[in-house]
Write a structure and sequence with these properties.
heterodimer; A: alpha/beta; Rossmann fold; B: Rossmann fold; 7-stranded mixed beta sheet; 7 strands; 40% helix; globular
Chain lengths: 354, 249
């Protein structure tokens, strides 16, 4: 066991990034992620790194593009409206096969929305972080402690698969304080970055970081190669947690902070004799399709609990090929569901048959 | 005895530029400067969207293709990650003075030690001749078919004048490649820009007045005349900022 610290989620993301060898942070202030930028501004100069406040989210993500092109570990963070601005740059980063970590501490939307916690950027994060055929890895921690582990993992995955990795958090996780232990995790083998633009030193032909392929057959080939990598990612890197699913008649599916509330609801349902369980995806992309599909053979139905109007619910239906009923319970606009509300929904679905 | 050869910093890939376009000359000047300073192996070039987007195929140094207008931000990321590199961007007028205006202003405000080669031909070339932020009043383009009208499309932007007000800008010069004496001056300006970067003086920006015979609808020769008569009148050549001179005072 290492030293236990009491920290906000936002600060833990920053600390975990620095401990993962990230020396560069480019950001722009936005609630509710600002503590992350402030922590970086304080810590980076003391620890041999750089924290730079850009003129916009657009500039920040392009600074990330530049720094990642040199092979450096680099991170940026924002919240929902800011992520929309970053999407152009993220698309170029995906198209240029660059590794980096992007944090979204989600708030309510659309538009300026609100500043309270939400999960309404699920579709954007998992399906369309910018234009074109492409993806970023999406990790959803559910505690400050899990942040400490997953941020390091995010950098490793980004480097290994040469793609951006998003930490999809929310305002609650970013703002709440919990004890955290930054015990070093076993290092994964990182491939050499022989593609990096850091001066050829007269030792090789010039490297090119580029997302432009004017010949369609060439572009198709590049995209197909990228999707081969996505396939490997899905085979090897899917992460999830199961709780009381073995004999469950109803399986709640929830991620991030919502999964913790759902867990309480599952316990309370069990006390009332309803066999409820919880499946928590940790990787939202790649989504644990196979695992959910296997569960569908054992359980009667699923309940997707989200802080949005129903986004992940569609991925669950696709994963299980609609062979069981999939319900949704969500609050939106920055409202957080209570365990009581979720339990009421479980009871309504079970209808005494559970 | 070799009397003339291609700069080492240029690859053997043939340029795709239209006949009479001056991008080729400007590419060569940048490459000659890289050769003369001996920095090819520690240089990273950044070319965003525009006619020069394929510059990554033409320069022998490491190259990055950037989103439209964002080259100064990308260059900032490269330089901050690796301050020992020589970093230049090669941007057109639509890129630098329209969609990338914020990036241009703030890279100057921060005084990033990079060099911007700003090619101003008063038109969008790659997309086929639309109005640029630098299109002159009265100039016809496909999106100003009746000539640029001040009351409707606003005024052309003078970039060197604008950025020279920023404290982080070390060197700003407007040059032209319309004739041999001016080509020589342009090369000297580019070299000075790279030297400013080496000496960590701040941002250097070299604005190069350039032609676009295809989209101007003029012959290469007439294009050079048009540049001299019209562009130079609105965009006077000269040094707009030089901190080395100010320091010497």
């Amino acid at each position: 066991m290492g030293e236990k610290l009491l920290m906000k989620g936002n600060e833990a993301i920053a600390e975990a990034a620095i401990r993962s060898g990230c020396k560069l942070f480019f950001g722009y202030p936005i609630t509710p992620q600002t503590e992350l930028a402030e922590y970086m501004a304080k810590q980076m100069p003391k620890r041999g790194g750089l924290s730079l406040q850009a003129e916009s989210e657009i500039a920040a993500i392009n600074m990330v593009l530049g720094a990642a092109s040199t092979g450096a570990r680099v991170i940026t963070s924002s919240s929902s409206p800011g992520i929309s601005l970053k999407c152009e740059g993220i698309s170029y980063i995906i198209g240029s096969d660059l590794p980096c970590v992007i944090v979204n501490v989600q708030r309510g939307g659309p538009g300026l929305g609100g500043i309270q916690p939400a999960q309404s950027d699920y579709n954007q994060a998992t399906k369309a972080l910018g234009h074109g055929d492409g993806h970023a890895i999406v990790l959803a921690p559910n505690s400050v402690q899990e942040i400490a582990t997953l941020v390091g993992e995010a950098f490793d995955l980004a480097d290994i698969y040469r793609m951006p990795c998003m930490i999809l958090a929310d305002g609650a996780l970013g703002q709440m304080m919990e004890p955290v232990d930054f015990e070093a995790k076993p290092a994964r083998e990182i491939p050499a970055k022989d593609w990096a633009c850091c001066g050829h030193g007269g030792k090789r032909v010039h490297n090119i970081v580029n997302s432009l392929y004017i010949e369609p057959d060439q572009l198709e080939k590049i995209v197909l190669e990228r999707f081969e990598r996505y396939k490997k990612l899905e085979e090897n890197e899917v992460k999830y947690e199961e709780y009381l699913t073995e004999d469950a008649d109803i399986v709640l599916v929830a991620y991030g902070i919502t999964a913790r509330i759902a867990k309480t609801a599952v316990r309370n349902a069990r006390k009332k004799g309803i066999k409820a369980g919880l499946f928590r995806p940790i990787t939202l992309y790649p989504f644990p399709k196979k695992e959910l599909n296997a569960l569908a053979d054992k359980t009667n139905c699923f309940l997707s609990v989200e802080m949005n109007m129903g986004q992940m619910v569609n991925d669950i239906k696709l994963a299980i090929n609609c062979k069981k009923d999939v319900y949704h319970y969500g609050r939106t606009g920055g409202m957080i569901p209570s365990p009581e509300e979720i339990l009421a929904k479980i009871e309504e679905i079970s209808g005494g048959n559970a | 005895m070799t009397v003339f050869e291609k700069p080492h910093a240029l690859t053997d890939t043939p340029f795709h530029y239209c006949p009479g376009c001056t991008h080729g000359i400007i590419h060569r000047l940048v490459a000659e400067v890289i050769d003369e300073l001996g920095v090819e192996d520690t240089t990273v070039g950044i070319a965003p969207v525009g006619c020069s987007v394929f510059a990554y195929n033409y320069f022998n140094c490491d190259m990055i293709e950037a989103p439209h207008g964002r080259a100064p931000a990308v260059a900032t990321g490269v330089k901050r990650a690796n301050p020992d590199l020589t970093v230049f961007t090669y941007q057109g007028d639509g890129d630098l003075a329209a969609i990338g205006t914020a990036e241009t202003v703030h890279v100057g405000a921060r005084g990033e030690n990079i060099t911007i080669i700003f090619v101003n031909n008063a038109i969008y070339g790659m997309t086929g001749g639309q109005m640029a932020p630098t299109t002159l009043l009265g100039q016809v383009s496909t999106t100003s078919p009746y000539g640029r009208i001040k009351e409707i499309q606003g005024n052309p932007i003078r970039v060197c004048e604008m950025v020279s007000t920023l404290d982080g800008v070390a060197y700003a010069e407007r040059v032209s490649v319309d004739c041999v004496p001016n080509i020589r001056k342009a090369k000297a300006a580019i070299k000075k820009g790279f030297e400013m970067q080496k000496n960590k003086k701040g941002l250097s920006i070299i604005e190069v007045l350039s032609t676009c015979p295809t989209n101007w609808g003029l012959s290469p020769e007439k294009s050079l005349e048009w540049l001299r008569e019209n562009m130079m009148a609105h965009y006077p050549l000269g040094v707009y900022k030089d901190v080395s001179k100010e320091e010497a005072k």
